[in-house]
Amino acid sequence: MAADDLSRLTIDKSAKTVRPGLRKKPMLVIGGAALLVLAAALYAMGVFGTAQPVETATVSLTYPSQSFTVLNASGYVVAQRRAAVASKITAQLLEIHVEEGTRVKKGDVIARLEGADAAAARDQARANLDVARYTLEQARAELEDARAAYEREKGLLTQEYTTKAAFDSAEARFRKAVAGVAGAQSALKAAEAALEAAKVNLEYTLVRAPFDAVVLTKNADIGDIVTPLGAAANAKAAVVTIADMQSLQVEADVSESNLEQVKAGQPCEIQLDALPDRRFRGVVHMVIPTADRTKATVMVKVRFVEMDPRVLPEMSAKVAFLSKPVGPGEESPRTTINPAALAERNGKTVAFVIREGRVQEQEVTTDGKLGDLLVVTGGVKPGDRVVLNPPGGLKTGSRVKQAEK
Fold first, then answer.
1. What's the pTM?
2. Band of residue 276 on the pLDDT scale cut at 50, 70, 90
């Protein structure tokens, strides 16, 4: 049994032995060949190549009006009707009915001042007017009685039934009654005027809007002392500041050397920094007949053809003075590209868009020209950076960099 166990330990030299390392060599060869093929492909695509210096441009949105703009200027939106609304009396502010942004109509009560003394004066004037009316009625009654006595004494005197002294007395009384009525009538007019004055003084306690407007700022609050001069300590001269939004115009500074290109009634296009995606139609309202010697400019006022509630006073604006009005279909911007950014590849018009330092070939369709630019209808979008005068060997994946000027 022991001999059998030892015989099992004998090595069979007839069996073939294969080393493990020899099995891996074919896999390594195949993997290496694949890497070489991939590297060659990437090199052919320009992945391992150096970045090629190129000039670039940006696809932009261009308004058709830019092709017939003769002059550009900057300025600000200004309300031509603006007022700091104050009172004509000095008093404490009791009520204020508006705040910033409130729209008011002409005659609307903006605020109310303390006016107990003015109200008392009005009531006194009204009572005095009643007294004057009663006095006039009394004077008229006296006049009727004096006239009757005078006529009676006059008739008796012709018949010698009375004395001359009695007639003279009746005549004097009649004339006195006539004067009394005239005086009472004048007193009545004076009382009426006094009542109107008292009403006016009471009206001064109400601060009203002088025209249709929007409240820009609230300068005083309840409890403040409001005075027309504002000279007293802590006193407020104005309650609110208002502006007529329908009177908004752009006041732009135009260089004296370019003034001959501007005239009243000229069509314009207004762009506000606060609303960059909107262009407003405008017309030159007037050229101010004086120059600013410090800036060598002349102010030009441009009115809006159509008002927009988003336009506010003091907004910064740019004005394009046009050679002709903006026609139908010319209000919207167009996507445009520099013609030098287009190239012919395999019978197609293409542009090379730069993304993260590499170019992507994009087929582009165009539809006419807009000034020196081409209108793009497909392939690229506003903001894309493209290669100008693309070299013949440029292709998708090529690395590029901005050429130094």
1. 0.66
2. confident
Q: Which residue has the tokens 């209000």?
A: 331
CA pair distance 273, 310, nearest whole angstrom: 12
Each residue of 220-266: pLDDT tens digit? 999 998 888 755 556 778 899 999 999 999 999 999 999 999 999 99
Contacts of 135 (CB under 8 A, 6+ apart): 184, 187, 188
